[in-house]
Design brief:
four-stranded mixed beta sheet, 12 strands, alpha/beta, single chain, 10 helices
Length: 262
């Protein structure tokens, strides 16, 4: 199955470089990489151009003008350009360990979307954390001893552990998600009415549930390492909560302002 890896970024070129380095170390490379860029400056563009010359797959920079936090819209634009049958979403500050893409594919299942876990890398460790640490158990243990990692129980890859299925909204995060192209097309992608940080991923999950899917999760596979960053501006959270509640009260799963309108 052809896989599209869609990496969302905004003005964190240092983190994006390390995410792309981790992507280059994958045991199963994605068939294409699309950088969903929410209006970053020229330094990010330079890094993308640098990596586009060395990756052995299609590599696209999908950019729109910086008009505030519009992750829903730029992800839709990238997905509209993607050609894979399966989409993996990853944030540009989330380093994928070696088996990340392979794990996503192993866990892909009809009638389900996948919600991945994340390990939180602390502020002090984040500045030097790379795919070398993500792929080295001794280095991870050292970081754990330094107490600069949270959710450390996800560090051990253990495929025999059974996957979990639910329709919960707890822990829904688009920094690490996977779904079949046909399913995200059926619900018309992310709701572009969401502007400003928060809840666009939960609203998508509500519509995927309404469409008939369930959520699949695994604590020891397809995990990413989320680098520390300052908290986002939460000015829009009240309005976004209202949009989420409106969807939860509706029987509709198709978003009027989504993927087709991107």
């Amino acid at each position: 199955m052809r896989v599209s890896l869609i990496i969302t970024t905004y003005n964190r070129p240092d983190a994006l470089r390390r995410v792309l380095e981790g992507t280059g170390e994958q045991s199963r490379m994605p068939d294409e990489i699309l950088i969903a860029d929410d209006g970053s400056g020229p330094e990010t563009s330079g890094i993308i151009q640098e990596f586009s010359k060395v990756f052995p797959c299609r590599f696209e920079h999908v950019w729109h003008e910086d008009q505030g936090f519009r992750a829903a819209r730029i992800r839709n634009r990238a997905m509209a350009m993607a050609t894979g049958g399966y989409f993996i979403l990853l944030d540009g500050d989330c380093i994928p360990p070696r088996h990340f893409v392979q794990d996503h594919l192993m866990l892909a299942e009809e009638g389900l979307f996948f919600q991945g876990k994340r390990i939180l890398v602390g502020r002090e460790l984040s500045s030097g954390f790379s795919c070398k640490e993500a792929n080295s158990f001794p280095r991870l243990l050292k970081a754990l001893v330094l107490r600069d990692i949270q959710n450390a129980h996800h560090m051990i890859r253990f495929p025999p552990f059974p996957a979990q299925r639910s329709r919960s909204l707890s822990g829904i995060k688009s920094c690490n998600m996977g779904f079949f192209r046909k399913d995200i097309v059926a619900v018309n992608g992310f709701n572009q009415d969401f502007v400003g940080w928060g809840r666009e991923d939960s609203e998508l999950a509500v519509r995927l549930y309404r469409y008939g899917l369930r959520r699949k999760g695994h604590p020891f596979m397809a995990v990413c390492f989320h680098l520390w960053h300052k908290g986002y501006d939460r000015t829009a959270i009240h309005m976004n909560d209202q949009l989420l509640n409106k969807t939860m009260e509706s029987d509709e799963y198709f978003c009027p302002n989504g993927l087709v309108q991107a």
